């Protein structure tokens, strides 16, 4: 094969292709297809990408029909590749020009196809296989005027097949009509008047496609361009007759037309440009201002105005003002603008060209093809000296009027003639030359300096000054090329003697008479130049370094040449102290070179050296991405980077280049701002872009302008949405501002892309949390209207204004109490005034006392509100950063299922071997095996369950127990279990609808075996989903709640906390506390560093121990940690003393029968103390005597609080404060229980406004919001990270939909409620309330109360009914009232997305269930479970046997007999 690598596969092509054969060559990733022609020259005609990576193997296989080819690489077999893809070519020429031997042009179908796929392709000219057979078309005439209608057009056609079915002619979308076929001609009619568009446009024609459409196929098979032209757009004779179309000019009517007959006179018709009326080329027309003068113009073919037509006028447009002057037509070839004077403003212009137009009859223009202009001029403008005046154009006839010292026309100079100088006159020389300026004023003695002398009257010819110039006494030779007559002389200095130091410039013009001599006022000095240093002293060998050479008098002279070795250093700028130049590339490689500086003819002697160093290189850049607008930071590593003074980074895209700045850190590192990508702002791409070139501008280093190895990628710019159409967002203080958008996180592979966002509210920045579609900005403490500005990279965007309305800081009860108190205050003041008159002192004292109480109350309310507000602003980052994904302690499958199926029972029989006395073992096992067969019989199992459910003594607990036991037995046969479950659910639905219950109540509670089985079914099948997907946000929520609760005080006895979502568990008073950081000795390794632990000084010792255990055993599951009760807390004081701290000891304070638990504050433990956890000791010096320890041991209230177990025990979770029976002492920690009425009088104030503390619920909610959102979003989303929607959910939802269809229930609310009752309320709520079912964790009562609020919100989100809320609604409903509508939308979208998914076939579902059974085959002891179920047979044997006897199917299968066998084997007395 001539195609380089790969082999040559020959196969016979389908179809008649003469001597062609096709061959395929495997070539890298793609497939090259070529044709071998008759001469064996190979033509490659297509490259097709067939596999992702790797070379193609040489083995290829055709499909049976030879239409497709299968191709392999080492890793994959490609999809079948079609042998041809003719359909990609859309025209006859591209089809036949492609070289693909399979393809030809099916003429009347207008498609590229294979011959056998083209209808009637064997008939002549219906199928073209060579380029010359393509259809061609010509039309005559091929253009008509837009005002001609229904013109007959004749189309000549070539290579058109027989058109017996007829043909249509179409003018694009203007009209369509039948064509008449006559031989190889087709006759069409042009469109009628109503169909032709009015073609009015800048150009004079409109091209449409004239198309032929076959009536047989309905396809356009040929087209050609057809032109409608419009003469009337031309408004001048020349443009009319020079038009390529048949246009004529009517010169008396001044119109352009396609029909010459419409001109009024025969001689008025113009067809040729030379017959047009026009002005001829004139010499320069000069008119001095304010001089009355006619303007005569040559012309030809000027029309004679007819009767009723107006005569000629000239129009001059002077500085925007139109001046009309009457004109006289002498004959057809001459016209004259009448005597008039003209003027223009200002003395800054000495000659002004003015547009001239000749018109007749008001507005009929005469063409001016030569574009003649009138030049108005002023002699005196910008000619303030004699020399400038005489230098003017001689045609202006200006001269110098000496008496007036100004430049004028001769007749404007009234003084006798000899006082008016003109250039041609005998005295054409100006006197009094003057020097105004010399540059430079210093130079080297060696000469060579070019001195520029500027002034007035410096001669009119070079010879006037050629030999009479001296500078500081030294001859200076004038240069022709620098001379500007009268204004400037440039001369080159000779060498000065050592004695010459300074002097004036002196010149003579023409002759050295006093009136022709001038002397400068400035002095010229000779200087000695010196060099002292240069920096930098080194640079890259490619040059481009900007070097500064320092010295003295370096600005002397006119020309500087700097060389480094043999290389020039390009001069940039200089001053007296320095010269700056840019190095060029070194030919001699890396070397130190001598620096030489020449100024004019002076060479400055000083030994300076510059070193050329190896060019910098770039080794690595990171990250290799930015956004289209650039300006994101990039770190760059390389070598010799410190040689470069102003490094820049560049990117070129679409031919446009952008650069940005870099900053060098050291020789090997610099940081750059990414350059933007040149994109049209209106067509911002949503795709990632790769720049054509990407590199660095490092002085002159060419090799780094384009980096070859980089894959630098640009991602789309973040885009923000405006707040709303009005652009104003109204918020309450403390509400986060959400900026919605897209592309906020670039989709970088590896996924750790972060953009640095700055969001300013007014002038203040706010803390930002980013997700892909929104920025959450914690609004700073502002009120009023502020502009919001988001910045990222090089972008700035303002989504609008935010209006933060000043919020009432007080809750309603507080306002009421303050108002009431204020009212009382006023009443008292009035009373005091009255009393004052009576001079009563008593009232005075009362008033003061009342006022103090009021002030106290007010300041407490305000302080509390302020604190709650501040807490809401606390950074969510604190939480997210702490939850750094330390391994999630998932429970294993068995523990997890046991906790859900049998809550609260730790060591259930189904986990143990069956316990029976030895002598009965064999019989019992045999009986249970028989019983297992019955359980696996669907008829028996359904009858068994229905019979049990119909017994009145069969309690709810029994129902749940039986459902769980059956599911443990059927764990290994989930297909069967699912079948039974579906049957039971179908029965339940029937029963529910028959009993006229509301359909929404279905599955609401667990009142039947089926409902508990459904819960267990989901428990089994969603374990994988919990582990892979939902577990993470659930665990994060649990940890976030726990951490947030522990940031504030928690009452060890009542379980109330400062931070809470639950009103019941909120500490409703001010607790003063401080956060301490204790250093804890690691109990596992004493020598390892101490662990810092955050503790509150109001924590009890047990609470401290638990926090320390949490910190030390952060990544250890709860069950593997030591218990706080088994450890003692030892405080190691700086003095070396060690002290065991306990909740109760001899130092514990008791007052009025209340004993307060010891806290760190009680022991006065300071911040930074060292503590250690040590194993429990028998006694300690500060322990209480043993009898009291036993009586009020720590474990008493520990047990009160701790609980693990079923949700049923939730009701009893708040521990009661039971007084110690013997001593009558009651324990307390932070708050005394309110039931005990002995509150001190002083506490009344706190009771009065306890409602104020409800704002803390909001603060807590704000902090936890993200975690709640994450959890709900994961649960209610069909697409998860790396995990598909579990099949079980789709399968069960489809089953419920089927049941609804079957019962004709079309109310979407009912269907929605069934699904909610079946999955979210049955399974997820259980998991949210009881995360200890899924994770190895300990859940305390405050966390439990918060999770209950989240679970309630979750339930409300799944409900379809509207929740009307008022101020009396429970706080947990009010707390999430704003969020629930959006959660409801998530739920609805989730159900709808699941509904739209393709149904799961029973076959797929059974395979999935079988796989699940196989994975968890031996988790439970089936015998023990069967034995537990059998206990219900023993209890209700008569009823079950009776039911089996009445059932026909059971009768056929002798199930009653088999059950009797089991009963016999199992009975104890047998």
Automatic annotation (TrEMBL):
Residues 432-526, 528-613, 615-715, 717-806 form the IPT/TIG domain. SMART domains: IPT, PSI. Gene3D superfamilies: GTPase Activation - p120gap, domain 1, Immunoglobulins, Phosphatidylinositol 3-kinase Catalytic Subunit, Chain A, domain 1, YVTN repeat-like/Quinoprotein amine dehydrogenase. The keyword Transmembrane helix applies. One of its GO terms (biological process) is regulation of chemotaxis. It is a single-pass type I membrane protein. It is found in: Cell membrane. Its main location: membrane. Residues 85-135, 230-277, 378-431 form the PSI domain. The chain crosses the membrane at residues 814-836. CDD domains: IPT_PCSR, IPT_plexin_repeat1, IPT_plexin_repeat2, IPT_plexin_repeat3, RasGAP_plexin_A. Residues 840-867 form a coiled coil. It comes from the Eukaryota. InterPro entries: Ig-like_fold, Ig_E-set, IPT_dom, Plexin, Plexin_cytoplasmic_RasGAP_dom, Plexin_RBD, Plexin_repeat, PSI. Pfam families: Plexin_cytopl, Plexin_RBD, PSI, PSI_PlexinA-B, TIG, TIG_2, TIG_plexin. Keywords: Acetylation, Cell membrane, Coiled coil, Disulfide bond, Glycoprotein, Membrane, Receptor, Repeat, Signal, Transmembrane, Transmembrane helix. One of its GO terms (molecular function) is semaphorin receptor activity. GO terms for cellular component: plasma membrane; semaphorin receptor complex. Belongs to the plexin family. PANTHER family: PLEXIN, PLEXIN-A4. Interacts with NRP1 and NRP2. Coreceptor for SEMA3A. Necessary for signaling by class 3 semaphorins and subsequent remodeling of the cytoskeleton. Plays a role in axon guidance in the developing nervous system. Class 3 semaphorins bind to a complex composed of a neuropilin and a plexin. The plexin modulates the affinity of the complex for specific semaphorins, and its cytoplasmic domain is required for the activation of down-stream signaling events in the cytoplasm. This is Plexin-A4.
């Amino acid at each position: 094969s001539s195609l380089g690598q790969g082999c040559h596969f020959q196969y016979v092509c389908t179809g008649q292709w003469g001597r062609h054969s096709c061959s395929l060559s495997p070539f890298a990733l793609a497939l090259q297809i070529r044709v071998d022609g008759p001469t064996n020259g190979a033509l490659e005609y297509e490259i097709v990408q067939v596999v992702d990576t790797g070379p193609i193997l040489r083995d290829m296989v055709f499909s049976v029909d030879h239409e497709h080819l299968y191709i392999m690489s080492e890793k994959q077999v490609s999809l079948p590749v079609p042998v041809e893809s003719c359909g990609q070519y859309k025209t006859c020429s591209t089809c036949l020009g492609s070289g693909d031997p399979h393809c030809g042009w099916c003429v009347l179908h207008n498609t590229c196809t294979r011959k056998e796929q083209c209808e009637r392709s064997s008939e002549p000219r219906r199928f073209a296989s060579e380029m010359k057979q393509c259809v061609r078309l010509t039309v005559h005439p091929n253009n008509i005027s837009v005002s001609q209608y229904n013109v007959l057009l004749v189309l000549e056609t070539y290579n058109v097949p027989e058109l017996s079915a007829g043909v249509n002619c179409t003018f694009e979308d203007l009209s369509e009509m039948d064509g008449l076929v006559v031989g190889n001609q087709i006759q069409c009619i042009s469109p009628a008047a109503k169909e032709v568009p009015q073609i009015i446009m800048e150009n004079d024609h409109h091209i449409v496609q004239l198309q032929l459409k076959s009536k047989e196929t309905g396809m356009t098979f040929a087209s050609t361009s057809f032109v409608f032209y419009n003469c009337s757009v031309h408004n001048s004779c020349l443009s009319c007759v020079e038009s390529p179309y048949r246009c004529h000019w009517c010169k008396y009517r001044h119109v352009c037309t396609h029909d010459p007959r419409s001109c009024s006179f025969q001689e008025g018709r113009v067809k040729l440009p030379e017959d047009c009326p026009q002005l001829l080329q004139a010499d320069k027309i000069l008119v001095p201002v304010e001089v009355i003068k006619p303007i005569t113009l040559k012309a030809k073919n000027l029309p004679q105005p007819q009767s009723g037509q107006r005569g000629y006028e000239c129009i001059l447009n002077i500085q925007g003002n139109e001046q009309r002057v009457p004109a006289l037509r002498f004959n057809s070839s001459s016209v004259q603008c009448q005597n008039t004077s003209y003027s223009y403003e200002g003395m800054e212009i000495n000659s002004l060209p003015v547009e001239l137009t000749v018109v007749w009859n008001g507005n009929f223009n005469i063409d001016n093809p030569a574009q003649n202009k009138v030049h108005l001029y002023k002699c005196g403008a910008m000619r303030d000296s004699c020399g400038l005046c005489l230098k003017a154009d001689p045609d202006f006839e200006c001269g110098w009027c000496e008496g007036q010292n100004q430049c004028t026309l001769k007749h404007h100079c009234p003084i006798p003639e000899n006082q008016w100088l003109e250039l041609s006159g005998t005295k054409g020389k100006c006197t009094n030359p003057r020097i105004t300026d010399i540059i430079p004023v210093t130079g080297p003695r060696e000469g060579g300096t070019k001195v520029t002398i500027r002034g007035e009257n410096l001669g009119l010819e070079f010879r006037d000054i050629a030999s009479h110039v001296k500078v500081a006494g030294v001859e200076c030779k004038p240069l022709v090329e620098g001379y500007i007559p009268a204004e400037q002389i440039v001369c080159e200095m000779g060498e000065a003697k050592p004695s010459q130091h300074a002097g004036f410039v002196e010149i003579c013009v023409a002759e050295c008479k006093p009136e022709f001599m001038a002397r400068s006022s400035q002095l010229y000095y000779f200087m000695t130049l010196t060099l002292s240093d240069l920096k930098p002293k080194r640079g890259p060998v490619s040059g481009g370094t900007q070097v500064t050479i320092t010295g003295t008098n370096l600005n002397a002279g006119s020309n500087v040449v700097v060389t480094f070795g043999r290389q020039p250093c390009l001069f940039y700028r200089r001053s007296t102290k320095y010269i700056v130049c840019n190095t060029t590339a070194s030919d001699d490689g890396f070397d130190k070179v001598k620096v030489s500086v020449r100024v004019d003819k002076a060479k400055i002697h000083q030994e300076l050296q510059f070193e050329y160093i190896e060019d910098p290189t770039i080794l690595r850049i990171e990250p290799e991405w930015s956004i289209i607008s650039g300006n994101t930071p990039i770190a760059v590593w390389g070598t010799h980077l410190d040689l470069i003074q102003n490094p820049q980074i560049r990117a070129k895209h679409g031919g446009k280049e952008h650069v940005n700045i870099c900053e060098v850190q050291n020789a090997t590192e610099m940081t750059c701002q990414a350059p933007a990508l040149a994109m049209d702002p209106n067509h911002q791409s949503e795709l990632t872009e790769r720049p054509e070139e990407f590199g660095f501008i490092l002085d002159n280093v060419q090799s780094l302008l384009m980096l070859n190895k980089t894959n630098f990628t640009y991602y789309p710019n973040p885009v923000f949405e405006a707040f709303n159409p009005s652009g104003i967002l109204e918020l309450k203080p403390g509400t986060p501002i959400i900026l919605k958008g897209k592309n906020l996180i670039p989709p970088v592979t590896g996924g750790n892309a972060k953009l640095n966002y700055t969001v300013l509210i007014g002038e203040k920045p706010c803390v930002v949390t980013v997700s892909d579609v929104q920025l959450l900005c914690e609004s700073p403490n502002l009120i009023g209207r502020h502009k919001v500005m988001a910045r990222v990279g090089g972008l700035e965007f303002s989504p609008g204004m935010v209006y933060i309305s000043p919020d009432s800081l007080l809750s309603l009860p507080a306002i009421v109490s303050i108002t009431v108190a204020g009212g009382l205050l006023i009443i008292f003041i009035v009373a005091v005034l009255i009393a004052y008159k009576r001079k009563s002192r008593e009232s005075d004292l009362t008033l003061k006392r009342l006022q103090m109480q009021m002030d106290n109350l007010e300041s407490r309310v305000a302080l509390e509100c302020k604190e709650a507000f501040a807490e809401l602003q606390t950074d969510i980052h604190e939480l997210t950063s702490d939850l750094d994904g330390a391994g999630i302690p998932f429970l294993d499958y068995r523990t997890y299922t046991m906790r859900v199926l049998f809550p609260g029972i730790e060591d259930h029989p189904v986990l143990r071997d069956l316990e029976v006395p030895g002598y009965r073992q064999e019989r019992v096992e045999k009986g249970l095996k028989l019983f297992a067969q019955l359980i696996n019989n669907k008829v028996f199992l359904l009858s068994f369950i229905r019979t049990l459910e119909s017994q009145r003594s069969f309690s709810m607990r029994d129902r749940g127990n039986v459902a769980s036991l059956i599911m443990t037995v059927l764990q290994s046969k989930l297909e069967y279990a699912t079948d039974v479950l579906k049957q039971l659910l179908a029965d339940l639905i029937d029963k529910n609808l028959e009993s006229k219950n509301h359909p929404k109540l279905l599955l609401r509670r667990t009142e039947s075996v089926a409902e508990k089985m459904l819960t267990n079914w989901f428990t089994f099948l969603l374990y994988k989903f919990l582990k892979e997907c939902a577990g993470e946000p659930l665990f994060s929520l649990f940890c976030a709640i726990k951490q947030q609760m522990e940031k504030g005080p928690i009452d060890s006895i009542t379980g109330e906390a400062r931070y809470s979502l639950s009103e019941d568990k909120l500490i409703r008073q001010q607790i003063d506390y401080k956060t301490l950081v204790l250093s804890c000795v690691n109990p596992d390794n004493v020598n390892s560093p101490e662990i810092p632990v955050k503790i509150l000084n109001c924590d009890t010792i047990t609470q401290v121990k638990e926090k320390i255990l949490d910190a030390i055993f952060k990544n250890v599951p709860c069950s593997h940690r030591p218990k706080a009760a088994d450890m003692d807390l030892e405080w190691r004081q700086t003095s070396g003393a060690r002290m065991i701290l306990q909740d109760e000891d001899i130092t514990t304070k008791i007052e009025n029968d209340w004993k307060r638990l010891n806290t760190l504050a009680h022991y006065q433990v300071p911040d930074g103390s060292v503590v250690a956890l040590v194993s429990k000791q028998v006694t300690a010096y500060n322990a209480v005597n043993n009898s009291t320890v036993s009586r009020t041991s720590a474990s008493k209230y520990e047990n009160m609080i701790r609980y693990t177990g079923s949700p049923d025990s939730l009701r009893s979770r708040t521990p009661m404060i039971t007084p110690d029976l013997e001593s009558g002492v009651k324990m307390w920690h932070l708050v005394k229980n309110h039931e005990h009425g002995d509150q001190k009088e002083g506490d009344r104030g706190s009771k009065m406004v306890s409602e104020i503390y409800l704002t803390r619920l909001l603060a807590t909610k704000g902090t936890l919001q993200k975690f709640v959102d994450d959890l709900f979003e994961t649960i209610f989303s069909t697409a998860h990270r790396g995990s598909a929607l579990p099949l079980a959910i789709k399968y069960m939802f489809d089953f419920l939909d089927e049941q609804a269809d079957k019962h004709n229930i079309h109310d979407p609310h009912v269907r929605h409620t069934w699904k909610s009752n079946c999955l979210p309320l049955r399974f997820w709520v259980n998991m949210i309330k009881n995360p200890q079912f899924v994770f190895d964790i300990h859940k305390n009562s405050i966390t439990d109360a918060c999770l209950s609020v989240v679970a309630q919100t979750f339930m409300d989100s799944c409900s379809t009914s509207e929740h009307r809320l008022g101020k009396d609604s429970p706080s947990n409903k009010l707390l999430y009232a704003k969020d629930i509508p959006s959660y409801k939308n998530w739920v609805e979208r989730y159900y709808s997305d699941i509904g739209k998914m393709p149904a799961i076939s029973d076959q797929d579902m059974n395979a999935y269930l079988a796989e699940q059974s196989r994975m968890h085959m031996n988790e439970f002891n089936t015998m023990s479970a069967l034995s537990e179920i059998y206990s219900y047979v023993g209890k209700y044997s008569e009823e079950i046997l009776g039911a089996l006897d009445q059932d026909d199917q059971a009768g056929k299968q002798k199930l009653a007999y088999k059950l009797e066998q089991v009963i016999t084997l199992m009975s104890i007395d047998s």
